[in-house]
Amino acid sequence: MRQRFLRAYFAYTFLFDFMLCYAIYTALFELRGLSATQIGFLIAFWSASAVLLEVPTGALSDRFDRRWLLVAAPLVKALTFVCWGVADGNVWLYGLGFLCWSAGSSLFSGTGEALLYERLDAHGEAHAFDRALGQAGAAESIGIGAGLLLGGLVAASDMDLTVWLSIPPLLLCSLVAFTLRDIRHGGYDDEPPVPYLENFRIAVAEFAHEPALRTVTLYIACGLIVFEVIEEFEQLYYLAVQLPIWLYGVAGAAALAANALASVSAHRFAGTRHIAWSTPLLGGALFVVAAFGSTPVFVLVLLLAYVAVTPVTVLSEAHVQALQEGRSRATTTSLMVVAQNVVGIVVTIGFGMLADAVGIREAYGWAGLTMLPLAAWTWWQQRGGRSPIG
User: Fold this and answer.
1) What percent of the chain has pLDDT over 70?
2) CB 3.0–4.6 Å: which of 5, 66, 149, 340 could bond 253 by disulfide?
3) Considering the domain boundaries, does residue 390 fall inside one?
């Protein structure tokens, strides 16, 4: 039963991010007349809407059956591509699409991790959560990579078709969710559900009383978030170094294959404390090197920066689950995601404006330099016995 659940969960994770449009959407926005600053504001709006939706959906997940939120999540996300398919340069419709994306992702984020942890814990295998989370991350990367590969090929003949072809996998994803039973409603856990508003109090109390939870949240939300946010601008870098459009998907798929391998292997680095500061430092150095790129080969340098931080991303997120008491797990996880999104808004707008002012390549270089204070702070935290990766 455990293996059947994991297979279904990994299939769900794969399908949720199997989007052909992911290969070209920021390039599509620019080609439809949007500036880098407008794109930055759209992505910032994406984060801002997630801030508003993340914690309420997490609390809904803690109060009601998680399975039904997972059924709804891909259906809401599919509306993104309906909006974009008819937008034709209308920035408001692109924004509405991002709102749908935020809503769908918010329904999945805290809910998915909480469900995975609880199912493993019910079988006495909570210690294997970091490995399962890495495998789920690999499934996500493979889904994104497959979408990038196919999307780049389709976009070479029709960019708009990649938008519409992003919808069918999400419909299938919703069907898979029917098999993801919430054990709190199936006999493993006899505790009554926590009242909806009580979940907020419990989540805030966990952050207030657990210093280690605050440390790992700062590490993710104020450090690793840089890699997550500026990844959305990488197609503008492709344009700057004149990467052929048919290679967009190939480059992204290759990077995500490496990312999937790094995710699956992340649990092997548990206990290797120095990677908490050394891998973000490496990723930042690669951004600086990419800033000097003038040919398509530098795309490889840029993509390797994201792969470098994958193991610590998996380990730090797994550490968040291990630190929680558990009664309002999805709400607590969602509070961390809110912190990420709040910082992400500032980073996104700032990076977009910086790219307009100095150029997209140079902006990546400046972003890389921000990893110096992160590495120093993480090293200092570890010397005090507070490691963000456990």
Assistant:
1) 94
2) 149
3) no
